[in-house]
Amino acid sequence: MTVINLFELAGEFAEDKDIARNIRIDKLLPALANGETVEIDFAQVGLATQSFIHALVSDVVRKEGPNVLDRIVFSNCNSSIKSLIRIVTEYSQDQID
User: How many angstroms separate the CA atoms of 4 and 94, rounded?
Assistant: First the structure.
């Protein structure tokens, strides 16, 4: 399992969608391509924007399909971040061709 520590990469307020895109391209996608499960660890991240979550996972869900979510674990999320993840993953699934 690959663990992505968001606090180390994005800080306490995960808002920069360019950082999220880089995490997706450099860490998330390669691990998934290798057949790994990926834990995205939100420990110490107090806030995140919807655009950050979107840049992090929406493209993955749209391209890989909803089953990819079985291989992504979102850990240590507060209720606000859980809500954003739910919103983004749901509308990403709705946009699958």
Answer: 26
Q: Is the pLDDT of residue 73 over 80?
A: yes
Instruction: State the distance between the two ends of the chain, measured CA to CA, in whole angstroms.
Output: 29
Residue 19 CB burial class (10 angstroms; 0-12, 13-18, ≥19):
middle
Virtual torsion, Cα 53, 55, 56, 60, nearest 10 deg: 120
C-alpha count within 13 angstroms, C-beta hemisphere, residue 18? 0
Sign of the dihedral defined by the CA atoms of residues 48, 40, 84, 55, in that order: positive
H helix runs in 1-97, sequence order: 6-10, 17-23, 29-33, 50-53, 59-64, 79-94
Domain ranges of the chain: 2-94
Residue 97: per-residue pLDDT: 58
